[in-house]
Automatic annotation (TrEMBL):
It comes from marine sediment metagenome. Residues 87-265 form the Integrase catalytic domain. PROSITE patterns: INTEGRASE. SUPFAM superfamilies: Ribonuclease H-like. Gene3D superfamilies: Ribonuclease H-like superfamily/Ribonuclease H (3.30.420.10). This is Integrase catalytic domain-containing protein. GO terms for molecular function: nucleic acid binding.
């Protein structure tokens, strides 16, 4: 490099010079990119569908599975910006300082449920119950239910233990299924049972399984499971709308596919 600089300092550069032309994307691929972005735009503009931003990674996966066409994410974003299919996202909030940190797989399982309109064509909300390994972020359990019960959460625990083994600790919120809270879960105004002095059925099962339980101090402190919820919500809703999913059984099939994608891709 020093020799080249001395020979011609005015033309010297350390930038890479491409000797070949950039690869031209076939027109059929260009058309499919625009077609899928147009569908995305219609979904975002529909006020009955809880989507606010484009998901270019979803479009990338769709091009590969639907058309067998591999396109890079930067290319899709480039076409989106050039054809008015781009919305700037709000900056992410700083991570919460009360998030729990783990050192190994199975140390902590984050367990939660979310009540949401997962499939707008169904016109009803469902519960999504999930269990997530805190260290690996691997989703161990995910299922849709029309009704949330203690038994549903006990069955989720059973599935996790039989399939993946018994964890050291479960990390949950203060939902009445998981925790008795003084002043909230007693029907009597005058009572003497303090918070955590009475155990709900789910917590009794946890004690029987010799699994510890700890509670999040705030919703923000459960950010590690909220992020996968957001990822699943964004993709499941899109697929359910595109496929006109109206039954919870169909939606479960979509959920299973996306959980597999999240865990293994």
């Amino acid at each position: 490099l020093l020799k080249q600089y001395k020979e011609c300092p005015n033309k010297f550069s350390i930038q890479y010079l491409r000797n070949t032309k950039t690869r031209i994307i076939p027109q059929a691929v260009e058309d499919n990119i625009i077609r899928e972005l147009q569908i995305e735009k219609k979904l975002i503009q529909d006020k009955d569908i809880p989507l606010r931003y484009y998901n270019y990674s979803y479009v990338k996966d769709l091009l590969e599975t639907k058309y067998n066409q591999k396109v890079s994410l930067p290319t899709i974003i480039d076409r989106a910006k050039k054809n008015d299919f781009y919305l700037k996202r709000n900056p992410r909030k700083a991570s919460h300082d009360r998030e729990v940190l783990t050192n190994y797989i199975g140390e902590i399982i984050q367990h939660d449920s979310s009540y949401h309109l997962w499939s707008p064509p169904a016109r009803e909300k469902w519960y999504l119950i999930t269990s997530l390994d805190d260290f690996s972020r691997f989703i161990l359990y995910a299922t849709f239910l029309k009704r949330e019960t203690s038994w549903a959460h006990i069955l989720a625990l059973q599935t996790v233990i039989l399939k993946h083994g018994s964890p050291f600790l479960y990390y949950v919120d203060s939902h009445s299924i998981f925790r008795f809270v003084q002043g909230r879960d007693s029907v009597w105004r005058k009572h003497y049972t303090l918070t955590d002095e009475a155990d709900p059925q789910w917590k009794q099962v946890m004690h029987d399984c010799n699994i510890k339980v700890t509670y999040a101090l705030s919703p923000q402190a459960k950010g590690k499971i909220e992020r996968p919820y957001g990822w699943l919500q964004d993709r499941v809703i899109r697929t359910c709308v595109r496929d006109n999913v109206t039954e919870i059984r169909q939606a479960q099939g979509v959920l299973n596919q996306e959980v597999h994608r999240y865990n293994y891709k």
